[in-house]
Amino acid sequence: MSLKLPLPPGFFQCPPLSSEENARYMEIAKQSVQDLVAKARIKDGPVKWTMLSNECDLKVYKGEGHGTTANSDIHCATMETVGHLDEVMRLYRTDTTEQAKEYVQRFSRALVDTITLYTILPRHPDRPNNCIQIKWFVAKSPFDGLVTKRDFCLLESDLEFEVNGKRAWVRAYKSVDLACVPDLRQTLNLIRGYQYDMGHVFIESDRPGYLDMTYLADMDVKGIVPDWANDQAVIQWCRNLSDIDRFLREDRLSGSPFLRPDQLCPLSMRKRCYLCQKRFGPLRKKSNCAKCGEVLCHKCNKVWQVKVNGTAAMVKCCFPCSLKGSSIAIGVGAGPSKGHLVRNANEGEDVITLHSDPASPQWGAESTFDGSASHCTSDDQSNYSESMAGSYYRQVVPPYYSATPPSSSGSSGMHLNHPRYQQPRTPAWSTSSSSQKVPHSPTRDPIILE
User: Fold this and answer.
1) Which residues form the FYVE-type domain (predicted)?
2) CB–CB of 84/166 below 8 Å?
3) Superfamily of domain covering 257-405+417-422
4) Fewer CB within 10 Å: C terminus or N terminus of the chain?
5) Do 265 and 363 meet the contact criterion of CB atoms below 8 Å apart?
6) Residue 272 — very low, low, confident or very high, per pLDDT cuts 50/70/90?
7) Where do the domains of the chain lie?
8) Peptide bond preceding 405: is omega within 30 degrees of 0, i.e. cis?
């Protein structure tokens, strides 16, 4: 029987590690995290960086010369996103092989398969965000089919600590050699690559509610790969920072209820997009945001993959709503999204209709933007960044409406829903409120990295 990916969880037969081996991997993990944080500094770091790609918020750099060895290249990507450190750590929770495979499926841009081999440092209630494991990964190139897939045997180190007084979390990778993970070139046509320092650094930004994300790749892909193909492959891997931003938004949307169809603003009430204020027409279709209920164009109202009752579903929500935490739920507390599948009569496609509290809705997303000018000239907000939508959203100050609830009085029992004007409310996720604190993990002494 021929082998094919993904491999079954028990494919590699790994014997237990001795206490000496476990301690050695612990030391390697700590050093790996320190090296990654040092190399990831764009300014005043050990690596001199040259910009390779600038895609609005995502910037990709290449280190001058070579990486750790003469055959390795070093690349780095940076991006700022709206979010909290705890959101990122939940997103990257991959303790079991099942969780790791789900992670690979979500981050399928560069990853193909993974198997957890050893747990060196299990999570502890005092340090729930620290974990060290050894895993096997398979990665692919953007030119998959022309460039052979690479596999890696990696020491994966998740550690929470402080960098210059700021809360941070790192996921670092470093290749290790295990006799129980043999070369798979003959059986699966995989070339064993080597990662010297690779991974993500997440640090709380100077701006409250923001994160600075850095991705570093210092590796030798082995085999014969042209420099241009290697650069394109690494740029593709670096774009997972944009994926992280999108996944954080989808997780936020999944964590709170959605509006019912009868709570949405009627499409006929809006002639312009609520966000960008462009007029609707044959090439600019209108649709509702399932969170705030407003009417938007297709560029401002993106389709997100969320979970409803534990099942994946495609739901349209505007960009401002995707930035908010679960506290924005209208009339209800945070909780899993609920709903059922219905037919969209306007667009002829299956969508999820989601249920929320029967209280009257407040149409219109509440701004969480700072109004900073965008460096992008296109109105396509596919990068989902605050800078892409902020300058548009601050210019839009329409009144907030809600559907009048049915009256219990009256002999006929008939009632017409007439929208009424309401003053804008204070943003639920406002960073100006001193009482709103960034959520922290259980109390514990942080690790200080010099």
Assistant:
1) 273-326
2) no
3) Zinc/RING finger domain, C3HC4 (zinc finger) (3.30.40.10)
4) N
5) yes
6) very high
7) 19-250, 257-405+417-422
8) no
- 310 is written with which tokens? 């534990």
Averaged pLDDT for residues 193-220: 92
Of 358, 357, 304, whose CA–CA distance to 329 is shortest?
357
Q: Which two tokens stand for residue 419?
A: 């929208």
Q: Which residues contact 213 (CB under 8 A, 6 or more apart)?
A: 78, 79, 80, 81, 200, 201, 202, 241, 244
Which tokens belong to 335? 């909780």
Confidence category of residue 347, pLDDT binned at 50, 70, 90: very low
What is the mean pLDDT of the segment spanning 254-266?
A: 91
In Å, what is the CA distance from 320 to each residue of 115, 206, 256, 352, 388? 37, 21, 15, 20, 11
Give the length of the chain. 450
Across the strands, what pairs with 159? 170
Residue 346 and residue 343: Cα distance in Å, rounded?
Answer: 9
Statement: residue 23 has pLDDT above 50: yes
Q: Domain 19-250 is of which CATH architecture?
A: 2-Layer Sandwich (3.30)
For 207, phi then psi, to 5°, come to -85, 125
The tokens 């590796």 sit on which residue?
219
Helix (H) or strand (E) holding 420: strand 420-422
Average pLDDT on 173-195 reads 95
**Do residues 212 and 78 make contact, with C-beta atoms less than 8 angstroms apart?**
yes
SS3 for 207-265 is: CCCEEEEEEEEEEECCCCCCHHHHHHHHHHHHCHHHHHHHHHHHHHHHCCCCCCHHHCC
pLDDT at residue 179, rounded to an integer: 96
Task: Tell me how crowded residue 166 is: count the other CB atoms within 10 A of its CB.
Answer: 13
> Is residue 324 a contact partner of residue 252, using CB atoms and an 8 Å limit?
yes
CB 316 within 8 A of CB 301: yes
How far apart are alpha carbons 298 and 173 in whole angstroms?
39
Higher local confidence (pLDDT), 175 or 333:
175
